[in-house]
Amino acid sequence: MMLAARVLAAVTARSVAQVQDRVSLAQLRVLVMIASRGPANVGSVARGLGVHPSNATRTCDRLVIAGFLARHDDPADRRNLILELTAAGQQLVEGVDTARREAVAAQLARLPARSRERLTRALLVFAGVDRTDGPDADRHDDPDEAWLLGWTTQRPVGHTAGRADPTATG
User: Fold this and answer.
1) Alpha helix segments (H runs only) across 85-169
2) What are the tens digits of pLDDT across the range 32-77?
3) Is the CA virtual torsion 31, 33, 36, 38 positive or negative?
4) What are phi and psi of 20, to 5 degrees?
5) Nearest CA among 62, 73, 66 for reference residue 39
6) Which end of the chain has fewer beta carbons closer than 10 Å to its terminal beta carbon, N or C?
């Protein structure tokens, strides 16, 4: 398991390295978070990253200056500023995501189809998404935990995104 984790960590590191000349890891997390959740305010970004709002503000300011984020007034509350990906920001996130998917696909292509199916099932159980045996057989954990953390742009089925947190300021 640890060897597989190292391979996945290497895939992630290579995808981040492809954009490290343009954005930091923290900035990439902001972009991925907004790409997956939709427009957000700085307070939402700070909570998502687990940082002080001033840190999130500085990170977002740099992304606006670099042209990866656009900032505008919230039509529902003009005291609130909304952050959205620009076309360049969307392209950067999609490039990182594509690189990761291609690298994982290349690794999986080395396995016979039956082994890939078994591995997929085992990884779903490992991730807590699908429990098919044992005392928790009918329990399905929240499959969007990685999405909520801002580590994937693949939105969970049925999730509605696109609105900033109306209770947050920033």
Assistant:
1) 87-109, 113-126, 145-148
2) 999 999 999 999 999 998 999 999 999 999 999 999 999 998 888 8
3) negative
4) -65, -20
5) 73
6) N
Residues in the chain: 170
Q: Which two tokens stand for residue 37?
A: 């959740």
Q: Quick check: 86 and 68 in contact, CB under 8 A?
A: yes
β-bridge partners, 84: 70
pLDDT band at 150 (very low <50, low <70, confident <90, very high): very low
Q: Which amino acid is at 64?
A: V
The CA distance from 29 to 82, in Å, is: 17
Complete domains list, the chain, with CATH: 2-134 (1.10.10.10)
